[in-house]
Amino acid sequence: MNEALADWDEFFATLPLLRGTDFDWMSYKPQEPAKYWNYVRKAGKDAFAMIVLVYYLVSNGADGSTEFEEKLEVIEFAIEHTRGMYERCNPPRLSAEAPGVLRHAQVERTTHTVDKQGGDGVRQANAKRGSDSRHLSWIGCSTFSEATELAAPLPLQQSEQYVTDDASFRTSMFKTRQEMKNNLYNQLTSEISLDHRRLVETILNSAEDSELSERERKYLELLSLRGVTLSSARSLLPDRWVVDGVINPFGSLISVLAARTIVILNSFFAQKLSKYGYEGVSRWSRKEIATAGGFVPGSALKLVMPISEPIERTERNKGMHWTLGVIDCKERRVEYWNSLNAVGDASAFFKVAFNYCNEHD
Amino acid sequence: MADELENAPTQENELPVEPKAEDANTPINIKVVSSTGEEVFFKIKRNTKLSKLQLAYAQKIGKDVGTIRFLYDGERIQEDDTPQSLDMEENDAIDVMVEQVGGRR
Question: What range(s) does the Ubiquitin-like protease family profile domain occupy (chain A) (predicted)?
């Protein structure tokens, strides 16, 4: 094993979460949302580091050097772990027993035919089903407002009610979140070796690239390989806001490494879609979507869009919070994940998502 | 016979090569569309780095190039990309978006 690889082997050893997990997902109890959410964060951070590493190894092995075989083993190991991490991070669906850690407003799509003599037939059919969730038709409706109208007679947003009704839960969650926010950086960095931590901090805190040593420069190169610039990477420091320059490069990396059926779209997708409609984004990630089975109801495709809230910008609100929207073709479901209960942009996302579904041929 | 064999391949090769040779230095018109819908047109050579266009645009609208994002077909344009490397066609649009941020909570 050559020197460079030994260096990275050392790096592997500094990521305790990747060597095994102490969290038993099968016995996860909804009563411990803090623990669960915390774990997702930690796992996410390590997966992040792992992804960088995998990419480094792959791109460096491509030169045909003799160590490629050795690297390949490491890569396979890394991909296995990253994928496992991703699957474990996929949170269980919220139920009445698990009030909203994340607000999981859910809309089910049903593929019924619209009654030509008036919408009532459909409404009654929906009402008869006696379901709690909102049923919106994807195929039957031509516009979002039509779909909303269909859903109107049904009890709305049950999952939101869990959140807003339970004041004590909300207070405790808020407290927990504050604590987590304060401790997050220390928690994360204490689990990485001091050396690694120092390296990252030096890079992020340096004003000029020329201040960096050889090793630090190598590290920085890792980041820039996928288009994460130094200024974007600095947004990961405590008390800074994360910019799209970090979200998007790693989004596309995860799309490549995770199952092929998941396409992580650019964070500007929702914004562009809401302003220009389907036309505006018809060419975005076209290849990836086609590879994943195409945007067809029932196909395995899961479209994931990171969203900087709010989708529709105003002079006053230029965006302040990262959320996640999902269009799941297999489950025929649209999901919106938001770690802040109070902010209500779910309807804006649903509007955008349904426009995409309806205008897509 | 010998002549025929020699001629056949050259004729076949010439056909696809011709348009490419024309492309290399021909300028291409590119539309830059801001998030508010304003359009600015640029004429650049196919092998010129798009980072030049980005700088020119940022200067024109008076913003730091680091605070805006240039996207082609939903992909952020990288430092070394050219119209040729991205397979851009005449009158293709580049989207300009304002940097997005979010608190870590």
Answer: 226-361
